[in-house]
């Protein structure tokens, strides 16, 4: 029985997508928490440098991972049924960030939900501050992933963590199907609050038969931005590094983007149970982004931007009892066109310049051990080729995820 329980936990967490929000169960208030801590052998960039992947416009919460021990995530969540059809979720937490950024607690989820129309539904309406539902990897917490680091494509296209204020209406897991639409205020990268907001549509299907479980889905996201800055280092959070003696540091060139951003993606997962002890897993996601707009800076220089970028990741894994071994391969490609007299300068300042044609890649080998139902350990070897200079680093981490109340019940329905 214990062995089957661990196999279920491993299979659910490692082979199939999980989501950063859920519908509470029918019982009493549910209180859950998680802490993810990781030691890394090296920094992605030096302390007085900026993390800017060549050929991309970055922002949001995509801070570089740092050397030493860091709390990647700490969360406390409360979910409750108000009545038979209405529920509420509140989640407070931190996401670790470079140089201490992201360490302060913030409300990540605070939304109300309403279920109705069981035939042909159910339909679910949710309103408030939420994660997205369109991409499994974007909605997953750091403890839900097999690896400790967010996919590169999420860092570049969505600033790693997507939390925004909006409304979601969707057809919820009926005969394996889920489909819906979301409208966002535009606080989350790649939108901004000065633009016209953002919206998306999505659909996915889950299927199982015997030893096989699969999911597949697709989505489309559109955002508008007005004078959007990279708030990691620029905009209202100007970052001026101080270099040690003998080294140099440059002020961050604050360029802005105004225009439309379109992103679409597909994702799939597969789990195959070879036996009671062994199972195989596969996850894949691919995204394509198009930007059409204008770059400008504080001195009035402007350039027209037309960009097409693609990226994704593939992750096969094998699980034996409490152990999971996995490999994740990632890549990004960029095709950027800037026109205007200021195009060369703005391309360099913004990070869109990629004269060498470098295609960012990253490869991760990971072992995860589910020591207890709520505690897991993981070890990783990461070959990082996101920047022009390759880097090999190592990581050791611990994941604790538990339901604090009630302890005798299964947590509400993940979605």
Automatic annotation (TrEMBL):
InterPro entries in the record: Porin_dom_sf (IPR023614)
Q: What is this protein called?
A: Porin
UniProt organism field: Marinobacter adhaerens (strain DSM 23420 / HP15)
Top-level lineage group: Bacteria
């Amino acid at each position: 029985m214990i062995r089957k329980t661990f196999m279920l936990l491993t299979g659910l967490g490692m082979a199939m997508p999980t989501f950063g929000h859920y519908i509470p169960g029918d019982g009493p208030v549910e209180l859950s928490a998680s802490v993810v801590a990781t030691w890394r052998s090296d920094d992605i960039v030096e302390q007085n440098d900026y993390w800017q992947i060549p050929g991309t416009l970055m922002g949001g919460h995509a801070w570089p991972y740092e050397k030493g021990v860091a709390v990647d995530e700490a969360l406390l969540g409360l979910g409750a049924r108000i009545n038979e059809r209405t529920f509420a979720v509140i989640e407070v937490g931190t996401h670790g960030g470079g140089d201490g950024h992201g360490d302060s607690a913030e409300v990540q989820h605070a939304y109300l939900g309403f279920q109705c129309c069981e035939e042909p539904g159910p339909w679910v309406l949710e309103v408030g501050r939420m994660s997205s539902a369109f991409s499994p990897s974007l909605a997953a917490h750091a403890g839900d992933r097999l690896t400790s680091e967010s996919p590169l494509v999420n860092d570049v296209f969505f600033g790693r963590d997507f939390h925004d204020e909006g409304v979601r209406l969707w057809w919820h897991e009926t005969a394996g199907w889920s489909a819906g639409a979301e409208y966002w205020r535009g606080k989350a990268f790649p939108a901004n609050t000065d633009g016209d907001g953002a919206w998306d549509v999505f659909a996915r299907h889950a299927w199982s038969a015997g030893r096989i479980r699969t999911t597949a889905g697709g989505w489309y996201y559109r955002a508008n931005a007005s004078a959007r800055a990279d708030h990691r280092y620029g905009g209202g959070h100007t970052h001026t590094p101080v270099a040690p003696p003998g080294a140099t540091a440059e002020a961050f060139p604050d360029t802005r983007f105004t225009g439309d951003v379109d992103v679409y993606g597909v994702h799939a997962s597969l789990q195959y149970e070879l036996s009671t002890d062994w199972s195989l897993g596969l996850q894949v996601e691919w995204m394509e982004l198009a930007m059409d707009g204008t770059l400008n800076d504080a001195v009035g220089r402007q350039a027209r931007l037309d960009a097409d970028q693609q990226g994704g990741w593939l992750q096969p894994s094998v699980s034996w009892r409490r152990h999971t071994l996995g490999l994740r391969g990632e890549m990004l490609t960029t095709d950027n066109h800037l026109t205007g007299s200021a195009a060369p300068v703005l391309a360099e300042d913004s990070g869109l310049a990629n004269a060498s044609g470098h295609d960012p890649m990253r490869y991760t080998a990971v072992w995860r051990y589910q020591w207890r139902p709520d505690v897991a350990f993981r070890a990783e070897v990461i070959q990082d080729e996101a920047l022009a200079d390759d880097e090999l680093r190592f990581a050791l981490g611990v994941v604790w995820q538990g339901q604090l109340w009630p302890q005798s019940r299964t947590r509400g329905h993940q979605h």
